[in-house]
Design brief:
Blueprint: H1 11-22, E1 28-29, E2 38-40, E3 46-54, E4 58-68, E5 73-81, E6 89-96, E7 101-108, H2 117-123, H3 128-137, E8 144-145, H4 146-149, E9 157-161, H5 168-188, H6 195-215, H7 219-226, H8 228-239, H9 251-254, E10 275-276
Antiparallel strand pairs: 1-3, 2-3, 3-4, 4-5, 5-6, 6-7, 7-9, 8-10
Length: 293
C-alpha cells in the first residue's frame, strides 16, 4: 500500500536534527529567528516554517519546511560551519508531492574532493560504506550539471521516486545517519589558526553560497509562494545567509562562463554543455567522470 502523502511531514526530520545536534554542542537561536519564523503563502494555502541556530563551530544551522494543502512537502535544511573550520556543509533538500519525491542529501565538500585527495581522505573515505548502503537504496536521479557536481561529495544521495515506493522511512534513516556522521566530524575538528587557510575556507563557503543563491532550483517555488521580493530576501538573508557578508565577489566573478554580453547572468542551468546522467563515483568513492551531452 502506498504511503499517504498527508502522512509525511518533514518537521520530524528537523526535530531529530535539533535534538541530536544539542547532544554535541550548545545551540543558540540565531538573530535571524526574530525575522524569519512562520509565513503564509500569498494565497494562504501554504505555510513556511523557518528555524535558525548557531554554536561555537556552527555559523548557521537553518531549516525551511513548506507544507501545502495539495500534499506538497518541502525541506531545505543546512548546516554551515564557521570559517575557522573546513568542515563540509550539511545539505538536505527534499521535495515531495502526491506524484513524486525529489531528494538530495549530502555532506557538500567545502573544497574539491576530486583533485584534493587530502580533503577527501580527511572527511569522506571512512564514510564511503555508509554512502554505498544508501545509494543502493536510492538510485541516481538523472542528469546533474557539471557545475553542480563540483559541490557534491562521493556519498551524495540524489534520487527521485514515486510515493508508491514507500521510501520516506529510508530517507529519514539516511538523514539521521548522515547528520550523525557530520556531527562526529564536527566533534573532532579543530579550529584553523593559519590565516591563509581561514581565508581559503571563507572564500570556498562564499563561492558555495553564491552558486546556491543564484542557481538553486527551489527558487521558482519560493517566488510563486511568496512573491519576488520576499523570495529574494529569504534566499539571500536566510537560506544562504553570508552571500552578501562573507565576500565581495559576485556570481560572475566565480563563474565567468555565465556572463552575457550585457554583463548579466545567463539563466541556463549549465554552460559547460555536459551533464552526469549516471552516478559518477564507483563503490570505492573514486570519481569516474562519465558525462553525456
Amino acid at each position: 500500500m502506498a504511503e499517504p502523502p498527508s502522512a509525511l511531514t518533514y518537521k520530524k526530520f528537523v526535530h531529530f536534527a535539533l535534538e541530536e545536534t544539542r547532544k554535541h554542542t550548545n545551540l543558540s537561536p540565531s538573530p535571524l529567528q526574530e525575522k524569519f519564523g512562520c509565513l503564509s503563502s500569498i494565497d494562504g494555502k501554504t505555510e513556511l516554517h523557518m528555524h535558525s541556530f548557531e554554536s561555537p563551530k556552527i555559523r548557521l544551522l537553518r531549516s525551511l519546511c513548506i507544507e501545502g494543502s495539495d500534499s506538497m512537502q518541502v525541506l531545505d535544511f543546512a548546516i554551515f560551519p564557521r570559517v575557522e573550520f573546513d568542515l563540509p556543509i550539511f545539505c538536505a533538500n527534499f521535495f515531495t508531492t502526491a506524484a513524486m519525491s525529489i531528494v538530495l542529501l549530502d555532506l557538500n565538500p567545502l573544497h574539491d574532493v576530486i583533485s584534493q585527495h587530502d580533503y577527501k581522505k580527511k572527511y569522506y573515505t571512512h564514510l564511503i560504506p555508509l554512502g554505498n548502503e544508501y545509494t543502493e537504496l536510492f538510485p541516481w536521479g538523472g542528469k546533474i550539471t557539471s557545475e553542480s557536481m563540483k559541490f557534491f561529495s562521493p556519498i551524495v544521495i540524489w534520487s527521485k521516486f514515486p510515493p508508491s515506493q514507500q521510501k520516506h522511512h529510508l530517507l529519514y534513516s539516511a538523514f539521521c545517519d548522515y547528520l550523525k556522521s557530520w556531527l562526529q566530524l564536527m566533534d573532532h575538528v579543530t579550529a584553523e589558526t593559519d590565516s591563509s587557510k581561514i581565508i581559503m575556507n571563507l572564500e570556498a563557503q562564499h563561492r558555495y553560497l553564491t552558486w546556491r543563491a543564484e542557481k538553486d532550483p527551489g527558487h521558482q517555488l519560493l517566488r510563486r509562494l511568496t512573491g519576488e521580493t520576499l523570495a529574494k530576501e529569504i534566499i539571500r538573508s536566510f537560506l544562504f545567509k553570508g552571500v552578501d557578508e562573507l565576500g565581495m565577489k559576485m556570481f560572475i566573478d566565480y563563474f565567468p562562463e555565465y556572463k552575457c554580453d550585457d554583463g548579466t547572468v545567463n539563466q541556463k542551468r549549465s554552460m559547460v554543455g555536459k551533464s552526469f546522467e549516471s552516478r559518477p563515483w564507483d563503490t570505492r568513492g573514486e570519481f569516474m567522470g562519465n558525462t553525456s551531452k
